[in-house]
Amino acid sequence: MPEDGPMGEEPGWRGFAVPRLQVTRSPLATALILGVLVAGWHLPLVLIADMGPVGLVTTFSITIVYVWLFNRTSGSVLLTLLFHAAQGAPTMADLGLVGPHLDRQEFIECVAWSLVAAGVLVVNRSAWRPSRRGLPADGPALRVRELTHRV
């Protein structure tokens, strides 16, 4: 993964895209849309063999967790950036895993992140529901709505 990954991605994906998507969509719809977009963003890493195809599923799952974290911290890009940096800092290739061992580790990581994503979806169901008006009840999307209504 590029060295500037979290610094380049978090302000754009969480700081810009999430609040704007949540103006008209639920947090769950936002996370799913963003998951597809972010996985597509990482597709070149698969094409240059820097990440296996299972890494796209991992990226989709991690995006769900990052959107949840962003919303649960009232829109903190800093916390998602720190979480992203910590999650991406130690790589198994850096620890010497290669070939089938690295492929197995990528699969295990995919399963683990998919379980974490499923956990935040199930355990914190209320965080994914829209408000009665069909929009997120509070958080960063509310601030975007307030700013756009003032103009």
**How many domains would you count in the coordinates?**
1
State the major sheet.
Answer: none
Radius of gyration: 16 Å
What is the structural class? mainly alpha
In whole angstroms, the N-to-C terminal distance is 39 Å
Taken as a percent bin, the fraction of beta residues is under 5%
Q: How confident overall, as mean pLDDT?
A: 81
Overall shape: globular
Order of helices and strands: HHHHHHH
Q: Kindly state the percentage of residues in helix.
A: 55-70%
Low-confidence stretches: 132-137
Q: How many β-strand stretches?
A: 0
Helix tally equals 7
Protein model, in words:
This protein starts with a helix and ends with a helix. The longest helix has 25 residues, at about 100-125. The chain has about 150 residues and is mostly helical. The protein has helices at about 5-20, 25-40, 45, 55-70, 75-90, 100-125, 140-150. The chain has one domain. It is built from 7 helices and no strands.
Walk me through the topology.
Blueprint: H1 5-21, H2 27-41, H3 43-47, H4 54-72, H5 77-88, H6 99-123, H7 140-150
Helix pairs in contact: 1-2, 1-5, 1-7, 2-4, 4-5, 4-6
Task: Write a short abstract of this structure.
With 151 residues, the protein is mainly α. The protein has helices at residues 5-21, 27-41, 43-47, 54-72, 77-88, 99-123, 140-150. It starts with a helix and ends with a helix.
